[in-house]
Amino acid sequence: MTQQNTPRTGTKSPGPKFRNRTRKAGERSGPAGKPGPDPTRDLAFDIVCGVVEHRRMLETTLDRSTVSDPRDRASAHRLAATTLRHMGSMTELLQPMLRREPPEPVRCALLLGVAQLLHLETPPHAAVGTIVDLLRRRGLAPFAGLANAVLRRVSREGKGLLEGLDEARLDVPAWLWSAWGSRARAISRGLHREAPLDLTIRPGATAPEGGELLPTGTVRYPAGTRMTALEGFEEGAFWAQDVAAAMPVRLLGDVNGKRVIDLCAAPGGKTAQLATAGAKVTAVEREETRVTRLQENFARLKLEAETVVADALEWKPSEPADAVLLDAPCSATGTLRRHPDVLWVKRPRDVVALAEGQDALIDAAREMLRPGGTLLYAVCSLQDEEGPERVRSAVERGGWTHEPFTEDELSMMSAARTPEGFFRTHPGLWVEQGGMDGFFAARLIRT
After folding, report:
1. Is 380 marked active-site?
2. CA 322, CA 58: separation in Å to the nearest integer?
3. Candidates 49, 108, 264, 380; catalytic one
């Protein structure tokens, strides 16, 4: 990692208690003196190294892992996500302590140790010992002494080491910081907080206890809440959906009895909103496995929708639709609170390529609509290239009129309305209530 590609932070991440697995005094280690297994740290190490060395998404490593215990997987995910969320500032913090640049895997291990000490409040003996053992297990024993010395210093000096560091700036790659402009600092501060669990409640159902009702109707629960453990899950009383992600369907207005096509529909949160609002919805998804997931979610929710396995660029409906909801594939920079690996995996050229695909999907959606029909274009992205610029480009190509969202339509979330009448959120909004994902939406009318 170069200094340019590393950020800084220093806030405690809320959530479930971090799971420590350290040997007690006198406990035997593995064969031939090798440290015993530690699934949490081993998996977290694989995740962080995958991101840093191979630009591999966090979920990809998690899916490939042989670690089966849900508690180990959850703890590893939290440790890795915390490390990635604060990676820039922790890298900067380590620089004066290292006489020479260590191999990348060693640096990743050190970052895991610092994250435990400064952001997860792991006891110093556990944080240091687990990383020393990790290096020995991974064939990096020559660096065990270095890790011991560096991490002991961090444990002694604590969060004072972060003083004077611009954590918000350091924890965001330079290209993203520049792209976000005046919003950058607020977005970065929002990224330092672990995302809460937001639920959309099925009409007529009762929300589980312990939640906070937000102005938009979303019910929010503390970070770390397990949705599957909440009362009403098996009965299909709710589904997970960030407060910002739940807004675009509402901005379609009254869809009762209307033919609505949901493109790129899986996992189906917005499809469920459309179905419960009375729309005659057709959900289109290219990958069969994702359609299966949508169908499983709908079975739990006891909802019905027509599902189609097809490429949205090629598929045509049997009759024109009244509305199309296009939640287009994007860089997902709006979901950084939940997926901090995106910070270090995505590149500027990825945004350019995605924008081309978004234009193609907008053009395809036009052919699915009746004249005067509505396209609700949405992306979970913070990038101008994937939001406002795509709408302007569509209007310039012809066949569309941009219809701004009104103040009344966004009265429950007025801060999300831009001067152009777009819907736009970022993680720095509603910080007092726990923040929200970054989302963009616009309404286009087929001419």
Report:
1. yes
2. 38
3. 380
